[in-house]
Design goal:
Layout (H helix, E strand, L loop, with lengths): L3 H15 L17 H10 L5 H59 L2 H9 L21
Length: about 140
C-alpha cells in the first residue's frame, strides 16, 4: 500500500515543472474619492474602526438601540391612546343622544292627556270637579 498523499504531491510537482503557470491579478476598480463606497472602504480597510474600538462602542450602541425601542413603543402607545379616546368620545356622543331621546319620550308620556289615555283602559277616569279639602278641627280630639 502506497502513500496516496505523497503520490498526489509528486504528481502536482511534475505538473508544475511541465507548464509554467501564469497567474493574473484581477483588475481592481480604483475608487475615486467622490464615490459612496470610497468612504466605507477607507473606513473599514484602513483601520479607522478596529475590533477594539467596535467592542468599546458596544455599550453605547446597545443604549441607542434601547432608546430606539422605547421611542417606537412610546409612539405605538400614544397612537393606541388616541384611538381609545376617539372611541370613547363616539360612545359618549351616542349615549348623550340616547339620553336626550329617552328624556323627550318620557316628557311626552308624562303629559296629562297621554297619562289619561293610558289609565282609561284600567277604568280610571279623570276628575271633572276639583278635589275637596278635608278640615279636622282640634276640638274633636
Amino acid at each position: 500500500m502506497n502513500n496516496q498523499f505523497r503520490q498526489e504531491i509528486e504528481e502536482e510537482q511534475e505538473e508544475e515543472l511541465q507548464e509554467p503557470v501564469i497567474k493574473l491579478k484581477k483588475p481592481t476598480k480604483k475608487l475615486d474619492s467622490e464615490s459612496p463606497n470610497y468612504f466605507f472602504k477607507k473606513l473599514f480597510t484602513d483601520g479607522a474602526v478596529s475590533k477594539e474600538a467596535a467592542t468599546a462602542m458596544m455599550p453605547f450602541l446597545v443604549f441607542l438601540s434601547l432608546l430606539t425601542m422605547l421611542y417606537i413603543g412610546n409612539s405605538h402607545m400614544a397612537v393606541k391612546n388616541i384611538r381609545d379616546i376617539d372611541k370613547l368620545n363616539k360612545e359618549v356622543k351616542e349615549l348623550s343622544w340616547e339620553y336626550k331621546s329617552l328624556k323627550a319620550d318620557l316628557m311626552f308620556k308624562s303629559k296629562l292627556t297621554e297619562v289619561a289615555k293610558k289609565v282609561d283602559t284600567l277604568g280610571i277616569k279623570e276628575l271633572i270637579e276639583p278635589p275637596k279639602k278635608i278640615i279636622i278641627s282640634s276640638d274633636e280630639y
